[in-house]
Amino acid sequence: MFNDVIIMAGGSGTRLWPASNSRRPKQFLPISPDRPGYSFFSAAVERALAVIEGADGRVIIIAGKSHVPHIIAVCAALSADERKRLVLIPEPAAKNTAPAIACGVIYSLCTAANTDRTMLVLTSDHIIKPLEQFRADAAAAAALARQERLTVFGIPPKNPDTGFGYIETDAASGNAVADHIGPQSFEVKSFREKPDRETAEKFLAAGRFYWNSGMFAFSSQFMLAEFCRHAPEVLKPFEKLTTPDKNAYRTEQGLRILENWPGLDAAYRDARAISFDYAIAEKCENTAMVRANFNWIDIGNWDEYARLLENTGSEVYRSGSTDCFVDSDIPVALAGVEGLIVTVRSGRDGGPPSVLILKKGESQRLREIVEQIKEAGRSELL
User: Fold this and answer.
1) Whole-angstrom Cα distance, residue 57 to residue 218?
2) Does the CA dihedral 202-207-213-214 come out positive or negative?
3) What is the per-residue pLDDT across 223-269, written as a single tens digit (0 to 9) for each?
4) Is the pTM of this model over 0.85?
5) Any idea what DSSP says for residue 167?
6) Which region, left, alpha or beta, applies to residue 133 given φ > 0 means left and ψ of -120 to 50 means alpha?
């Protein structure tokens, strides 16, 4: 299926503040009340391992240096054979997704005997299930990638959501890219930015627009050529990198970490900060989309996260309180309240203590709170 899978595990989100912050962003938050420690990132690693093949199949994790301890903790729970397939590249700076993907492609080319690899890029902050259906859709994407196409996964829209980018296809005409792959693969006509409500309603009614999942498949040589053509200012700094020797790695709890790749700091310093969508996807002239048959959930606010999980606090005491969600690392007592989301971070992780008390259904107001924190010069809270 795929020779290499890149997991983008960097970034820091504020949509689930204060549980998600720059020290422990959303991808490392738990997603199952029955599986302690099982996070968005854990699920991404599970997906990646399910779609690599061959003795040299690898999972390349790219994340910020501050996220390394979280990644080590997740990967420590894997088997020894699974950990052998992983390598972690800590980013010296946050430069958006195009430099991260360019870094992953160059690493693949520098370290593999086969220099034309089939590659998949995964996000690490979504819920995707069932795994078997994801594997089937990934197989269709791999087949398209081997035809020298950039391949994306399109999510059938359930509503006129204004929070996602959209993919415009020729799906309405039923013109499949390749009959032997099936009717779920389509030519991509364009990528559209997050629309306003009226435009999103038009997209939904048209029947040929899909939500952009942010996941991509391609062959390494094809993508190298696309970077050369459309974003040389991103690629050129990474082209100076050479094959890292064994001394460039360290191993912790069975996970290989590429800690001293000569030239990586300079590459990130010199590369343009830009998203992969802007740099490559929107400009590529040979792009196909696989219509996702798996369930894809973007947990984008506290109301959605509260529905996903039961109470995650260590201790919660209630009196006359109903319909409240609590996520806290210290004891919390609720008396005579209803319909609240309460999130407490005591600071025991080394960060500043913070508390969010939110009325259910009002998650959108968190954006205003985050802006107030920034304007107050308290960005360390984020």
Assistant:
1) 15
2) negative
3) 999 999 999 999 999 999 999 999 999 999 999 999 999 999 999 99
4) yes
5) E
6) alpha
